[in-house]
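The following record pairs a protein chain with its ligand, iron/sulfur cluster.
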Amino acid sequence: MKCRKCGAAAAIELRRHNAAFCAPDFQEFFRNQVREAIRKYRMFTTEERVLVAVSGGKDSLALWDVLIDEGYTTTGLYLDLGIFDYSVESKAKCEAFAARRSVPLIITAVADEVGAPVPEIKAATRRPACSGCGLSKRYLMNRVALDHGIPVVATGHNLDDEAATLFGSVMHWQTEALPRQSPALASTHPRLVRRVKPLYRLSERETAAFAFMRKIDYIVEECPFAVGATSIAHKQVLDRLEHDSPGAKHNFLFGFLEKARAAFERVDGVELHECARCGQVTTSTVCAFCKLSDQVKRARA
Ligand code: SF4
Ligand code: ZN
């Protein structure tokens, strides 16, 4: 197999693009996909600061690596979820990356903000770990960005993540979730920053290959609470489709973004207020994060 660009021996085959690339040309292809995502959705400019939410995994560190090399002014944000060894190791990977690339990294511990780490939140709420964890992550990403005057948060969600989320929403016809499924969410309130996903055009396999070629040291283990998550089952279904029909995930996600998403946008919109307790945006009087931290504190008392 030969590289489509230079004819040298290929290091990776991309069946959905009907192409193969040598390592240098694959990295250029990867960067071009990120550039195209940023351009198409006007995610951010070189004049803006970007908060990159990093988990220590391949996707978020690969994203940070590309944005640094593209000349963006980035700050990393690592949210310490307090999930046993997984959090200890993933935090060390982020710290090592930030030190190697000489870029700033903010570390915020969920336990300091909510009152307990994710495993205790799970016990206190008697809900799946991902429920309190996801809520805390979304809230803290926005609040940290606001506190530091950064207008946009970038996350490492890739094509596989986005296709699996879309599949889950469609399976349950969660029509209120569909318009929020986008590579770029605008700020709809002065206290909400923009959220963008510059890797949405790249598959999990492609980000893994990029991270490997760039010698990025990332955590390979998944969060222990991810085991058995329905999102993983959805990914497996899509993997089978992709195997038999390369490009299936791409067509599913991009077809939705281009042809269907607009149909689910709500015209009435939702009314946003500032939480009476913390000032963050909510649809009720007190936000879900403040309610969660009350519940956790009560359970610990
Ligand atoms: Fe949080 Fe782990 Fe669930 Fe991801 S899988 S949302 S890190 S608890
Ligand atoms: Zn609040």
